[in-house]
Specification:
By secondary structure, the chain is mainly beta. It contains no helices and 6 strands. Helix content is 0%, strand content 36%. A hairpin with a 4-residue loop joins strand 4 and strand 5. The protein has a domain of 52 residues. It has a 6-stranded antiparallel beta sheet, with no helix packed on it. The protein is globular, with a radius of gyration of 12 Å.
Length: 83
């Protein structure tokens, strides 16, 4: 079984810049962030900082975000991974 995040090469994805930082734009199915790591993620609109909670199996809004609900990770379309 090939799990997201294993044998990962961020160089093969398109990039974007934000606040002098470069990010790879990665489809959800190709990568899963470390537990509790704040990562910009999207459902197809703008990006929100969220983290993966292993106890619930859900993506949870970061402490720095305004209130929001936890979402199933497979409802997300893309992640931004800092490179």
């Amino acid at each position: 079984m090939n799990l997201p995040g294993l044998d990962f090469d961020a160089d093969k994805y398109p990039t974007c810049s934000n606040n002098n930082e470069t990010f790879a734009i990665i489809p959800f199915a190709d990568w899963l962030p470390s537990d509790f790591e704040d990562v910009p993620c999207s459902r197809g609109g703008g990006y929100r900082l969220m983290y993966f909670s292993p106890s619930t199996g859900m993506m949870v809004p970061s402490e720095s975000e305004n209130a929001g609900e936890a979402v199933e990770p497979d409802t997300l379309t893309t992640w931004l991974k800092k490179i």
